[in-house]
Amino acid sequence: MSTYQWDWGVVLQQVPESDEFYYQWLATGLGWTVATALSAWVIALLLGSLIGVLRTLPSKPLSFIGTAYVEIFRNIPLIVQLFIWYFVLPELLPTALGDWMKRDMPLPEFSTAVFGLGLFTAARVAEQVRTGILALPRGQKNAGLALGFTLGQTYRYVLLPMAYRIVIPPLTSEFMNIFKNSAVALAIGLTELTFQMKQITGDYAPANPIEVMTIVSALYLIVAFSVNRIMAFIEKKTRVPGYISGGK
Amino acid sequence: MFRKATLMMAAIGCAFSATAFAEDATSTLQKIKASGVINVGHRESSIPFSYLDDKQKPIGYSMDLCYKIVDAVKKELNMPGLKVNLVPVTSATRIPLMTNGTVDLECGSTSNLLERQKQVAFGVATYVAPVRMVVKAGTKIDSLDDLNGKAVVTTTGTTSDQLIRKNEKGMSIDVKNVYAKDHAESFLMVETGRADAFVMDEILLAGLIANSKNPKAFAIVGPTLRAEPYGIMLRKDDPTFKKVVDDTLKGVMKSGEINKLYQKWFLSPIPPKNINLNLPMSPELKNAIANPSDKGV
């Protein structure tokens, strides 16, 4: 006995008593989602690569730092990490600094979300980079060193270029994940896509939540699928003929 | 690959348009009689209207009123053994769950808005919620003008955000909007100094203050920005069931029993922490009780 009145045009409606439209809310939400995910991905890729490499180094203290980082950031739920960065950290810092974080820091929700999401994802990227390096035959490293490369040069010119190519498929998943995980930022008040969905479907009129939820799901699907295609293109373009087949 | 994706999209589209052919609304009373069950939607943290006590049982002012309606339904259908099925709902799920027949009554703190009346119906108003703001005691904020340049927190999906936007413009003050995911977090923003004020229904603010570590540290200030009538929600175009709901509520109001219920939930210690909200009846609510109405805003 469903009496739900479907109205897909609901997102084109004007927000009551305002000069904005619901689709504009969704558009700004999508903008923040993409901006957050891309910025966090830069942190995740750079820091993750560094940590991943650390874990493969012969130095015990350095590989310990890498392992500790991965275990800490991988074992605490993302939403809890965001709460810690946003609510707990300013209370632990000296009052002046804490107040600055709360009141004067530029874009506090956005920067916290980018930082938190980036650090969290870095732990996962680190594991993938490490796996890629470890998947290479041991002879490659020895060959690099035998040619007179320093350890740094061996990583830069021999190991990493191959390792990154191997881990493109898991990195693709991680890149897609960071877009989906960015939804958690609504918990600290970033007005991203899921936030805007909740804003429209909550106590707000119009009373058509199902349509809005469906449209938001479709938007996430489009974004994640685009990332997937772009990464597949990169994978194809960077393929080393005869070495990594790309699974085909 | 792309063709497959298109096909999948088309399939999803079909599934949705198929459900778009809404069936005719049958009477809720017939449905209850046929199934032997009345499904009552409740909230989990709308203190003191509808929330879970320490035994996870839904209680509250709206729940008490709903049980009176359930009694009336039992009498109307002559089914003393009618089973009551309690279904938790949230602000996002209550309308879909009502329209798809999962719940027959929604007993929470739902504002009777004209937009919502396109989807659902409301019983006569059982509460009128003035919207005001909470600030830290001692801060010099008494009116909307004082919010100029201040940070104001809004909970996602609430009507007060709309209210700020409207007033912000009308009074040409510049307010910095910050957001939180629920009321507890909004209150925390004020408590930790991230926000200067939280605009919300006065009764919800009173509940948050009463539950805080130091209730004296906060004050509810400012004018009433809007008074929202809360109503018990039911399906649209169902005059027989609506009559049972409205007659029951009007009876409770006329007999003065509502004053006892108000005393019990708003002026006495309530579970789970035995805190007294201490919120005397507003003139708006007195008027709503004297002249029961299901008019939306």
UniProtKB/TrEMBL annotation, chain A:
<keyword id="KW-0813">Transport</keyword>
<feature type="transmembrane region" description="Helical">
    <location>
        <begin position="66"/>
        <end position="87"/>
    </location>
</feature>
<dbReference type="InterPro" id="IPR043429">
    <property type="entry name" value="ArtM/GltK/GlnP/TcyL/YhdX-like"/>
</dbReference>
<keyword id="KW-0812">Transmembrane</keyword>
<dbReference type="Pfam" id="PF00528">
    <property type="entry name" value="BPD_transp_1"/>
</dbReference>
<dbReference type="InterPro" id="IPR035906">
    <property type="entry name" value="MetI-like_sf"/>
</dbReference>
<feature type="transmembrane region" description="Helical">
    <location>
        <begin position="212"/>
        <end position="231"/>
    </location>
</feature>
<keyword id="KW-1133">Transmembrane helix</keyword>
<keyword id="KW-1003">Cell membrane</keyword>
<feature type="domain" description="ABC transmembrane type-1">
    <location>
        <begin position="30"/>
        <end position="231"/>
    </location>
</feature>
<dbReference type="InterPro" id="IPR000515">
    <property type="entry name" value="MetI-like"/>
</dbReference>
<keyword id="KW-0472">Membrane</keyword>
<comment type="similarity">
    <text>Belongs to the binding-protein-dependent transport system permease family. HisMQ subfamily.</text>
</comment>
<dbReference type="InterPro" id="IPR010065">
    <property type="entry name" value="AA_ABC_transptr_permease_3TM"/>
</dbReference>
<protein>
    <submittedName>
        <fullName>Amino acid ABC transporter permease</fullName>
    </submittedName>
</protein>
<feature type="transmembrane region" description="Helical">
    <location>
        <begin position="30"/>
        <end position="54"/>
    </location>
</feature>
TrEMBL record, chain B:
<dbReference type="InterPro" id="IPR001638">
    <property type="entry name" value="Solute-binding_3/MltF_N"/>
</dbReference>
<feature type="domain" description="Solute-binding protein family 3/N-terminal">
    <location>
        <begin position="37"/>
        <end position="269"/>
    </location>
</feature>
<comment type="similarity">
    <text>Belongs to the bacterial solute-binding protein 3 family.</text>
</comment>
<keyword id="KW-0732">Signal</keyword>
<dbReference type="InterPro" id="IPR051455">
    <property type="entry name" value="Bact_solute-bind_prot3"/>
</dbReference>
<keyword id="KW-0813">Transport</keyword>
<feature type="signal peptide">
    <location>
        <begin position="1"/>
        <end position="22"/>
    </location>
</feature>
<dbReference type="Pfam" id="PF00497">
    <property type="entry name" value="SBP_bac_3"/>
</dbReference>
<protein>
    <submittedName>
        <fullName>Transporter substrate-binding domain-containing protein</fullName>
    </submittedName>
</protein>
